[in-house]
Amino acid sequence: MDPRHLIQLATILEKGSITQASQHLHLTQPTLTHNMQTLEMQVGGKLFERSRFGVRSTALGDMLAREGRAIARRLKDAAEVSARHRGGVSRTVRIGVGPLIGAAFLPGVVEELLRQQPAVHVTVQSDRPHLLVEQLIDGRHDIVIAPSWLDRPPPGIERFLLVEDDLGVFCGASHPLAASGVLSPGSSEGQGWISLGTASPFEQHVREMLEEAGVVTPRSEITVLGEAMLLLRLLAQGRHLSVLPRFPTRLLQQYFPIVELALRARPQSRNIHLWCRSTMLEDPAFAAIKNAILAHAARAGEKTEIGKPVSRRKVPKRRLTSA
What we know:
Blueprint: H1 3-15, H2 18-25, H3 29-43, E1 48-51, E2 54-57, H4 59-86, E3 91-97, H5 99-116, E4 120-126, H6 129-137, E5 143-147, E6 157-163, E7 167-172, E8 182-183, E9 192-195, H7 203-212, E10 219-223, H8 228-236, E11 240-245, H9 246-252, E12 258-263, E13 272-277, H10 284-304, H11 317-321
Parallel strand pairs: 3-4, 3-5, 8-12, 9-10, 9-11
Antiparallel strand pairs: 1-2, 5-13, 6-13, 7-11, 7-12
Helix pairs in contact: 1-2, 1-3, 1-4, 5-9, 5-10
């Protein structure tokens, strides 16, 4: 099987037609058609179906196109590595990170890595946590920094506890509830919420915590996907509430006028982990990078008091039990 044929298949399905794919790949249509016929013969099945609206993938075509995209990414990565090597960069570290923890934690991590290893090159990609782990498995990252919703990591993946974190409720300093610093049962009625995402593995944890705090049906007016700065700027305007992980949000409070509200509910754990492929740990240089990130997280945790007993504003008992 020619790997170029898999890349060509991925391009056909991406462009939606052989005509557009041939133009993009700088191949004639007969050549591209012949290559797909060869690939279909080798794999023993149809890769896509033609119609007057273009091409529609089969299940087999989808699976093989995924491999083609992976090959194309590897080739692009190889070209970038070669270019950086010519520029004097001896090593690249690819980090995948959630948007909020990335904005709060990654600047310090990158500065530390560059200080310890001046010849290293760091790439950072932000995405939703469950997608980042899938991308790590596919080889698109060397390290992922994200919370865990799994009992154990997937085969071939290792994870290390970065920070013991949990969820909190936050609002802007000008929000009506900010003065009391309390989210009591019924106090959020009619208030709008900003959601970090839908269909998330952590969605049930958020719902359970809010129900225990007396917020039965939060009215989500805004959903923000993969964009930390937008979420924080909206929250800082003082018209919404949001459930956010406490560790990165506390780090970012120095830049945004955001207040955490005390609530009558058990904290929902959302520990943050460092994920990597098991084979990477055999490289002493990579192990040093991993240890540097863990050490930086420990120092950041001390600054925010994360990992210590939760320091919340003391609230009179009558406020917590009022309807």
